Each structure stands twice: as structure tokens, then as C-alpha cells.
From TrEMBL:
Alphabetically ordered keywords of this record: ATP-binding, Cell membrane, Membrane, Nucleotide-binding, Transport
Name of the protein described by the UniProt record: ABC transporter ATP-binding protein
CDD domains in the cross-refs: ABC_NikE_OppD_transporters
Membrane topology, as annotated: Peripheral membrane protein
Pfam families tied to this protein: ABC_tran (PF00005), oligo_HPY (PF08352)
PANTHER family (UniProt xref): DIPEPTIDE TRANSPORT ATP-BINDING PROTEIN DPPD, OLIGOPEPTIDE TRANSPORT ATP-BINDING PROTEIN APPD
């Protein structure tokens, strides 16, 4: 097991009170596996990722419970210096907004090269050559010239490729990509996603792909974990989820995106808004929006029911959802 997150809890102190951003998340990622973490914005996906990476400082969040086992060691018990070493070399993160993640006053060649100078002790010249290689690997045309350009001189899609190159530089065992294609237009999204999938296979990395967009994960993910109000509400192999969701929230997400296998079907948005994390509804947090909700849903928090091997759902009525209308 490459990554195992156990019972992770994260809180934020806000003006309105304590926000329970992550309320007991558990998940695993194997080497070479892609886990997609899916949910509307504000459901705790990014906070979970930041807690795993150990970069939960802005805004000030606090891990109150849980374990983050990376290659068998609990990262939450390591010294910051040791974590920083792991973060640089063995796990890397890709963000949505490359322009703010890259340094605007350094050429991309210098930024990529820096990784090799700092972590591998290479000379500037060798590091520069490796930077060009990497830019080639992520298919940036004319890499040998473009290595001298600054981030703002690249298109959004090309900048995202540079971020991928930065993440790949030290050949990490795990990459966490937080909405890596959200800012791009649809065709560029598909290209960047294909590239990420291809490199993941080639380097046999674990990949955690965080997204609000079910449309982008079908082809690349092995498994999907659906998050709602700081919890994972369904987790299953990707094909199971597409065939028949076992949680009404997953069904709502599926019904709100266009799908090739369901041409001509009306798209319906999930009614209402995700809850404020300072005041999560009692019982099942999804009950105010759920078409299947009953009295018990308003009082009893659903545990994670085992639906089948490798598949869980936090819905009292998962059977009904699974075999229900379609
Ligand atoms: Fe809906 Fe109840 Fe299931 Fe929650 S537990 S998803 S409210 S049916
Ligand atoms: Mg986010």
C-alpha cells in the first residue's frame, strides 16, 4: 500500500465557529493506481489533500485526529524537516492554477532545473539539460528554446504541463492533482488528462485526482471516492459507480453531467447547496437535498455500509439507490 489515510479529521476556526472540514476520511491508494476524489466545491477535497501533503497552513487548519500512512510511515508523526524531504522527492502536488504556483520571475528552465540542483546536487548545466528533457516528456514543443521563457509566456494548457513536469521531476511515488484541468477549455483538458494518465502508467505512480467534474475521471480513474460535507459517502471501482451508484449524492452527480452512454437523457442538477461546514445537518448531512430521505436520515448518521467487496456507501437506503429507478 502506497498511501493509507485513516479516520482523518480536520477543523478550521472561523468567525462563525469551528468548521469541520474533514470528518473522518479514510482511503487507500496503491502504486500505479488512480483514485479520483469527487465532490462539489467546499466538500473538503482540497483540505484532505493539503492535510495529506502537510501543507495545511493557509488558511489555518488543524488535524485533530487520524493517520496518514505513506509507504508505511505515519506522516503526521514526522518532524517537519523530514516531511519536507518526502514532499519534495516522493510525493508531489499539482494545483489548479499554475500561474500562481509557478514563480513569475524565474524562467521555467530555472524552476525545473532548481529541483535537480537542490535535491540531486546537479550542476546548473546538467540541471538545465534535464529541464529540457522533462519539457519534452510533457510534450512542450521546441523545449530547448522555450526553457528560457517565463511562465506568463505559456498558454494555460502549456503551463499546466510545466506543473506536471515539476511534479514528475524527482519521479515521486505519489502525485496529488487538485483540479488540474479545471481552468482549461475542454479539448485542452482532455489532452492534459491523457498526458497525466500516460505518465502515471509509465512511472507506475499512485495518482490522486481531485475534481468536481465527473466527466474527466471516467477514463483515467480506477476508483472513485465521493465526498460530501467532509466525509466520503461512497467509494467504489469506477465501473461500479457508472453502472449504478449506491448513494443518492453520487446519483445526483451522475445525473447532472452529460454522458455518452445516456444520450437523450435530461440532465438534472442536484437541488440546494452543499452545507456550511460550521453547521452540518444532523443525521445524514445530505438529507436536506436527498430525494430518498426519510425520518431516520434526519437523526441517525449513516455508517459506511459494505455494498460489495471494495465498495462502501454511507446511505441507510443504499440498496434502494442501487436497485432503484433508472
Ligand atoms: Fe438520502 Fe437518507 Fe441515504 Fe442520506 S441516508 S443519502 S438522506 S437516503
Ligand atoms: Mg478545491
Amino acid at each position: 500500500m502506497l498511501l493509507e489515510v485513516r479516520d482523518l479529521h480536520v477543523e478550521f476556526r472561523t468567525r462563525d465557529g469551528i468548521a469541520r472540514a474533514v470528518g473522518g476520511v479514510g482511503c487507500t491508494v496503491d502504486a500505479g493506481e488512480t483514485l479520483a476524489v469527487l465532490g462539489e466545491s467546499g466538500c473538503g477535497k482540497s483540505v484532505t489533500a493539503q492535510a495529506v501533503m502537510g501543507i495545511l497552513d493557509t488558511p489555518p487548519g488543524r488535524i485533530t485526529r487520524g493517520e496518514v500512512l505513506f509507504q508505511g510511515r505515519d506522516l503526521l508523526t514526522l518532524k517537519e524537516e523530514e516531511r519536507r524531504r518526502i514532499r519534495g522527492a516522493r510525493m508531489a502536488m499539482i494545483f489548479q492554477d499554475a500561474l500562481s504556483a509557478l514563480n513569475p520571475v524565474l524562467t521555467v528552465g530555472d524552476q525545473l532545473g532548481e529541483m535537480f540542483v537542490v535535491h540531486r546536487g546537479m550542476s546548473r548545466k546538467d540541471a538545465r539539460a534535464r529541464a529540457v528533457d522533462l519539457m519534452d516528456r510533457v510534450r512542450i514543443p521546441a523545449a530547448a528554446q522555450r526553457v528560457r521563457d517565463y511562465p506568463h509566456q505559456f498558454s494555460g494548457g502549456m503551463r499546466q504541463r510545466i506543473m506536471i513536469a515539476m511534479a514528475l521531476a524527482l519521479e515521486p511515488a505519489l502525485i496529488i492533482a487538485d483540479e488540474p484541468t479545471t481552468a482549461l477549455d475542454v479539448t485542452v483538458q482532455a489532452q492534459v488528462m491523457d498526458l497525466l494518465g500516460e505518465l502515471r502508467r509509465e512511472y507506475r505512480m499512485g495518482l490522486v485526482l481531485i475534481t468536481h467534474d465527473l466527466g474527466v475521471v471516467a477514463d483515467v480513474a480506477d476508483r472513485i471516492a465521493v465526498m460530501y460535507a467532509g466525509r466520503i459517502v461512497e467509494s467504489a471501482p469506477v465501473h461500479d459507480i457508472y453502472k449504478a451508484p449506491a448513494h443518492p449524492y453520487t446519483r445526483g452527480l451522475l445525473d447532472s453531467v452529460p454522458r455518452l452512454d445516456r444520450k437523450g437523457r435530461r440532465l438534472t442538477a442536484i437541488k440546494g447547496q452543499p452545507p456550511n461546514l460550521v453547521a452540518i445537518p444532523p443525521g445524514c448531512a445530505f438529507h436536506p437535498r436527498c430525494p430518498l430521505a426519510r425520518d431516520v436520515c434526519r437523526t441517525d448518521v449513516p455508517p459506511l455500509y459494505e455494498v460489495s467487496e471494495g465498495r462502501v456507501s454511507a446511505c441507510h437506503f443504499w440498496r434502494e439507490c442501487l436497485h432503484g429507478r433508472d
